[in-house]
Amino acid sequence: MNNILKRTLLPSLMAASLAGVTLVPAKPAAADDQVLRDVGIGAVTNVVTGAVRGHGSVLGNAAKGGVTGAAVNGANGLRSHHHRRNRNLGQDVGVGAGASALTGAVTGDGRHTVGNAIDGAAVGGAIHLLTNHK
């Protein structure tokens, strides 16, 4: 009986949720047109910090850094146009640390939460230093 319910209900539930997500967005995305720049900065920075710490693979660190860079960009995109150019260091570092720790937990790297947060803080700081006032 359990398999019958799974085969019957799950496809229709997935279709309904997909239609709801794609057809009725609640708010436009907050990321700005420089998201790829921040993803790249995040990926490179996290590869370097991962190599310094001796933790993780290059590809895994690059992916985690890219996600962290996108999160920092998205958080900055919520601000007004004037404040986007004058980024907040504390916000960039904090969002980077939180996003990297969360990404590490989701990808199965939850044993190194503090290290992931440090890597993310470095990503947020690098994005801040390289993109502030631009």
How would you characterize this protein structure?
With 134 residues, this protein is mainly alpha-helical. It contains 6 helices and no strands. It is globular. The mean pLDDT is 79.
Radius of gyration: 18 Å
H/E series, N to C? HHHHHH
The percent range for strand residues is under 5%
Morphology call: globular
**Poorly predicted runs:** none
- What share of the residues lie within helices? over 70%
Per DSSP, the total helix count is 6
How many strand units?
Answer: 0
Topology:
Layout: H1 2-23, H2 35-53, H3 58-77, H4 81-85, H5 89-106, H6 113-131
Helix pairs in contact: 2-3, 2-6, 3-5, 3-6, 5-6
Short key terms for the protein model shown above:
mainly alpha; 77% helix; 134 residues; globular
Short characterization:
The chain is 77% helix and 0% strand.
